[in-house]
Amino acid sequence: MFFIEFSRVVKFALQSILRNFWLSLVTVSIITLALFSVSFLFIFNLMSAHTLAVVEGKTNVYIDLTASATPEQAQLLVAELQKLPAIKEAEFITPEKTLEDFKARHQDNKLILQSLASLEQNPFRGSLRINVYNISDFPVILSELSKKDYGQYLEIEDQEFTDAKLLIQGIGDYSQKIQRGGLIISLFFIIISLLVVFNTIQVGIYTHREEIGIMKLVGASNSFVRSPFLIEGIVYSILAVAILMAVLYPLLAFIQPYIDGFFKEYSTSLITLLNQNFFRVFGIQFLIAVVITVLSGFFAVRRYIKV
Amino acid sequence: MIKFTNVSKYYKPNVVALKTVNLDIASGEFVSIVGQSGTGKTTLIRLMIAEEKPSEGQIIIGGWDITDIKEREVPYLRRQIGVVFQDYKLLQKKNVFENIAFALQTCAVPLANIRRIVPQVIKIVGLEGKEERYPFQLSGGEQQRVVIARSLVHKPKLLVADEPTGNLDSINTREIIDLLKKINELGTTVILVTHDRDVVNSLKKRVITIDEGQIIGDQSKGRYVL
Ligand SMILES: Nc1ncnc2c1ncn2[C@@H]1O[C@H](COP(=O)(O)OP(=O)(O)OP(=O)(O)O)[C@@H](O)[C@H]1O
Ligand SMILES: [Mg+2]
Question: Which domains occur in chain A, in start order?
Fold first, then answer.
């Protein structure tokens, strides 16, 4: 009984899609367009979340030690810092290491290397490299450090941490603005597609009004009358998501070089990013499409069902 | 079979389509309903198949009180009533067999049963050999017979026909009325709404006359009196 009804409903739905081929095409295109704008919002979100994570992970703060601090004291300090839960890493950078790093960084600059060689002793002092889980924890940690006994060994300047924080805030603000813009554009497209799809489905249903009238007259249940149009909507949604995938992947591959050029070392493969979030992204897209089509179908058919 | 108790039907602003109608039709009867245009005959039919609900009163069909029938119960009522209207309401893109089968397809009847029932009703209405024809290849009378065949697929105990011969010439009218008589003789209660004086007079069956929404005549071997 159920199987008979189901297979017939599916058959009616497919017949209806094919019979109104051009209308179906318009419907699917519009849904695909709406999903396309949503996809970009998604990918942008993933990309900005990725960038933020990378930036935050790469943000180290160096705190210089004062001249009076001995390496032993510095090691003690590092051990203390490592105990703090907010701190991911703490490391003592010896003056020698700082000198080596400095030389390595300027190995092409003869002048600097010469003037360093002419010095009798290492001009650098030791420093502490601190990496935290959350950039916003920095101020607390810094004020903590300056209060305690070790304040005298550290030359705490807010500057460096402030720069890092501003960068991250900047990225956050930007991405929020763009996200909001993207959300508005996506909503706009979703509403447009809702209106267009509602109308195309209604036109489609209009071509079936006689059949619906007869169905009602001979005692078909409302759910039987309605189901083909809902299934039609689901078929449209599947098609739209399939087309979206077919277009999105090549497009991402195409824009990848530009993304790399813009984000430089913070860049990542968009396709990998999308694949990692495959079910979330396309699942939500499919849901959006189903809501658009099924809602449209439901309300469009309601007019003809009331007999 | 059909019982109307003090039924009134008002359409919105202030149209009185039916006014305190009392009606009792027994199982197996053949009843003609006559009356001038706009007097409420179609309204009476629409109340019987729950296309409309009464504003007042009570309607019982086959022991079932449909006065406040729920929307999801309507399909079960419709499957027990065959309905035939003046405009044929056939699907132009389906042939005779498919048009009749459609009524069964939409009600979850298995294919094997469809293959058995459709030829039966085609035989009853006398359209054997024309199963493959499309509506445009049929005369008006033949099209109306397809509609009647379709209305019979659920083996209804009640058949309501609202001016089924309204668009037909006298020969086709004769044939359709004979068919309805035959269906009535097979045990189905038939309600026939008609304007056709000759039809009513030749039937010699019960005639209910309606005027301005009220029953003004009910004779068991009636004639068309207006
Ligand atoms: N949906 C409606 N809304 C408002 N008024 C209606 C509606 N349907 C019918 N009427 C009115 O109710 C009255 C009865 O209509 P009905 O269709 O029952 O008449 P009828 O006897 O079938 O007429 P005819 O012989 O021309 O078919 C008429 O005055 C008509 O205008
Ligand atoms: Mg009428």
Answer: 9-56+175-305 (no CATH), 59-172 (3.30.70.3040)
